[in-house]
Amino acid sequence: MAETVLAKTGIVQQPGCLEIDKLNALDAAPLLISIVNFGHPPRNLWANSRYLKEKGLDLQAFIAKDPCQDTPEVKCKQDDVYQLVQVENNVVVERSHNEKTKSHGEVICSPIIFKSSTTSDEGEKAVMITRLPQDLQRQLDSHMRYMTFLLECSPYPMGFFTFDGHLITSNPAAVAAFGDTIWLQSDIFGMKDAHERHGLADPEKCNHQSNKAHPQTERRTAYMKMMEALVEDGSTYEVDIPLKKKLDDQTEETWYCRVFAQRQKDPFTGEPIIMVSHKNVTDLRKVEGELGRMELSALTQKDLIQHDSDVAGSLAVLLGEDWKFVYDNPGRESALSVHKSSEGSSSPRSLLSAVSADYGSSSLIADQLQGLRAVLDTADDWHFNVFDLEREADGLPLQVICWHVFTKHNLIEEFKLDQVKLMNFFRAIESGMQDNPYHNATHVADVVQSMHCLLLKGGLNQFVGKMEILAGLFSACIHDFEHIGFNNDFLIKTQHDWAIDSNDKSPNENHHLISAFRILRQDDFNFLHRMPEAQRNQFRKIVIELVLATDMGEHMAIVSKLKTNLLKRMENPDDQIEDEPPDSLRILVLQGAIKVADIGHVYADRDVHIRWAERLEEEMWRQGDLEKHRDLKVSFLMDREKPGVTRSQPGFVDFVVMPLFETWAACFPKCQVLVNRVQANCDHWKEMEKQWNLASKT
Q1: How far apart are CA 408 and CA 311, in angstroms?
Q2: What's the chain's average pLDDT?
Q3: I need a surface site. Which of 49, 290, 468, 531 has the fewest CB within 10 A?
Q4: Tell me, what's the pLDDT at 468?
Q5: Is this model's pTM higher than 0.70 or not?
Q6: Strand order of the sheet with strand 158-162?
Q7: Residues with catalytic annotation?
């Protein structure tokens, strides 16, 4: 059963005349177009190639068919179409939702005069029926689901406007906050006179005469500056503007609204539209002076950050079209009641948004979102399973965990980080990760989570402040950026570009740093642009030291420094570390932390650890395969025809892992649990080694 909505979009006093020899343009259109005379008896007159192809008909077969059978997309009654369109010359838009197929569409019925060789000179009145093909409709449906979710889930008033300043649609929060009398239900910034506004589409309207008629008020100035700022898709603008709100006693009060606007593209028309979100900052303005503006703006952001920490809200908004989850809110108010204008009528666009709101929910999607919440609830635990995150985050584990830990440590508010550019940066890093068996985005997400746990509950508080936490998590995020699956020795002996650029010194690690900082310095990704220069220099210095420390060639040297420079000082009661440890000691602690995090899978649950060991083995074998292909000496443990990494785990743990972890736990006793977990996994490998040895003797 299909549900339908009919809406008249206008009156055509003189229907357009369409002659048979002028149909080539319609035939080439990427739409499904048919022409039907709904008189008595009804007759099919013409259809374009795309329509005929989808129906599996030729033109003659289409003309021979009964229109009531041939045009099932027209769900309304035949007499209604005939009367409204063919007789009264209305343009009718029909929106339907089919429960069986879960499909949604929009059909436009327009009156025309159709002339052909078989009609009289005046032609015959008919109806041209137009709809989107299924593939384009699915793209539109997907976009509308995302937009509806964005509107429905945000606790902040949001709306979409044309560039002429007219409201397309708004969310329930906007209606609740402003009611039917406020500007959001009519025009952007409260400027209802078209001459007061000017958009990018018609800048001539803002002429000298209109400037005289409308003084340069604060609202008008804000609007004009916004138009100048929103010149490209994705560009943004933020401003505080005064608005008037009618109270219950019919008096008005002035309040200040902090507006954030972003330019987007309408997926249906391709025209630019403006997404606007806003927050009442009147109380802040009362105490906000020029000297305190930045601090109070940060307080305003605090509520946003708290909201962003909610998985259902922040991740869906920030991950944009890549995010596949839609929030399920069965108790929300009917979208049709939300989008009604003050006159009680609805535009076709607002109706389309309203209908799309009704099918955005799904119990399956809600379960998926609940699964993601459950995974992130374990992000503070040593036994965190990053493969669960990979699954629940729809293949975007790095973006999700980075945003989660940055908000967990309150870094966005602490350093006034640009949230949009921060998420852009996380996206860029994840998209730059290669699909290697081991060195991939999931491994980096695992290292970020391990670094987060070490900083959160590893007992490092004496040595790390907010700057060290920021640099440590950032370093974990970029430490394997663009890794191509080969170790440093291979890059050096093959004279790879990375080795040439780094003069054979840690070519992988140097490339990770260089590429990541090149992205960070671009305007769209520079989330540190508000940070003072001295802090930025300190941040960069720490990050360089940490990422270079992940070179396994530096492993023993760092373990030795931990024993000499840190452990001995902590064990000697006469040599207490100062309240403010020197920078060199802070960096050494962070270097040790990122070393522990980088091989953190050794203390993961056994099944997770084994999975990572097998992935590492496969990646090393692939390097060995290439070395054989190039007639190079195959590196240790990289010959696919010989025992690999999984057969050497006991030795790796005894000689590489345990010296680091035992030293680390001695310095930070809260991490002793990691040593115990490593030993448990090592015992497993030793038992497996016994079984392999027995099997080789039989």
Answers
A1: 12
A2: 76
A3: 290
A4: 97
A5: no
A6: 167-170, 158-162, 272-280, 252-265, 236-246
A7: 439
